[in-house]
Amino acid sequence: MVDKVPVTAAGYAALNEELKDLKSTQRPEVIRAIAEAREHGDLSENAEYHAARERQSFIEGRIKELEGLISRADVIDPAKLSGSSIKFGATITVADEDTDEEKTYQIVGETEADIALGKLNIRSPLARALIGKEAGDSVEVMTPGGGKSYEIISVAFR
User: CA distances (Å), 129 to each of 95, 120, 137, 141, in order?
Assistant: First the structure.
């Protein structure tokens, strides 16, 4: 059985957009670049040819990876979820109990996680600690820098 990969609707759209770009724009561009480099003669010392072949290899690998992710995607629309306990797709505001600094995260799938954008990987230690908890609860998380305590301020699905 193939494991489904949880992904938000926005994450799914981004995967499809990247796949479309790779197939319709980047793949044809690299094929043209390889053809041009071949016309320059001796391929053994042709840096453009080798760079284009390497780029082609990356593009084909990424296309296969994206097709696999898309075929296994379990698209979850956070706006259709509800409840007070934290689960995939929830947008959570937490306060660091030491500094009172507040941060807002959305729990998303591995493929769309980007901590700089507040997209928290569901497999991360913080997300695992938050799952099942509710606003008002405190969680302890072991981070690379040591233990951290957070109070959950709010839980929303949007």
Answer: 14, 12, 11, 7
Pairing of strands 138-143, 146-156: antiparallel
**What is the model's pTM?**
0.79
- CA separation for the pair 61, 41 (Å, rounded): 27
152 token code pair: 């959950």
Q: What is the residue type of 53?
A: R
Q: Write down the domain spans for the chain.
A: 5-76, 78-156
The CATH class that applies to domain 78-156 reads alpha beta
Residues listed for the chain: 158
Q: Reduce the secondary structure of 61-107 to three states and give it as a string.
A: HHHHHHHHHHHHEEEECHHHCCCCECCCCCEEEEEECCCCCEEEEEE
CATH code: domain 5-76 is: 1.10.287.180
Using the predicted structure, report yes or no on whether residue 61 has a pLDDT greater than 70: yes
CB–CB of 133/144 below 8 Å?
Answer: no
